[in-house]
């Protein structure tokens, strides 16, 4: 059964995000090696080079805040809090067998299982049929701030889950995971995917949680896979499987509407990104 409360929460989050808009979206730019928003590589070998884009451009309209500067720890709201002794609740994100991104000629299959436990959340990641590394890699992977809607639009998931407001101007230091964005799975657990064809890994993350009252709760939120220049390839929601999990959302049923832009979602005063007129502005440096 679909949760009636979660979509309302998502709409509330979107309304809050829109109310926090500090300025309009930047103008379109030409996605190229010199202006790609890619950290640290540029998309010189991908078909996205030369595409008009709003996301993915190096756009930083606001001066860096202390939590965004190298050498600082955590985000504007400090570091993430570990959640131990979690209930044995299971969430599963299964990638849909639809092609969200028409520029990528393969449909990624797989799942991400998450189970609460004494040390945090145990994740098991299995992905197959990855696109060509030479053309599209390496692949970044995160938990985002909002669910995938029923039309399958991965852009609607907005930015990374980031309750401490770390932002994306400074890369995650895996030796200090509490200072990273809570949803930055790649940053904390092995980096971008650099293997050909398939990828499998498992790890425990104490900063994510299966408990709704936790800032790190990800039930109903989206797992998103990106190309090397941050374009979104595929996405799926974490749905409750068993235990005392209390939230689930519908799986995407269509390919959605492919946006004209690429990249990671924008950064705000709060922990979620802003959708401005259907366009999310990336604040990357």
From TrEMBL:
Query: What is the name attached to this protein's record?
Result: superoxide dismutase
Instruction: Check the record and name the InterPro entries matching this protein.
Output: Cu-only_SOD, SOD-like_Cu/Zn_dom_sf
Q: Which organism is it from?
A: Pyrenophora teres f. teres
Cell division among keywords: no
**Keyword tags:** Antioxidant, Secreted
Q: Which GO terms describe its cellular component?
A: extracellular region
The reactions it catalyses are: 2 superoxide + 2 H(+) = H2O2 + O2
Q: What is its EC number?
A: 1.15.1.1
Entry similarity comment:
Belongs to the Cu-Zn superoxide dismutase family.
Name the PANTHER family on file.
Answer: AGAP001623-PA (PTHR20910), SUPEROXIDE DISMUTASE COPPER_ZINC BINDING DOMAIN-CONTAINING PROTEIN (PTHR20910:SF1)
List the Gene Ontology MF annotations in alphabetical order. Answer: metal ion binding; superoxide dismutase activity
User: Domain of life here?
Assistant: Eukaryota
Q: What is its main location?
A: other
Q: Where in the cell is it found?
A: Cell envelope; Secreted
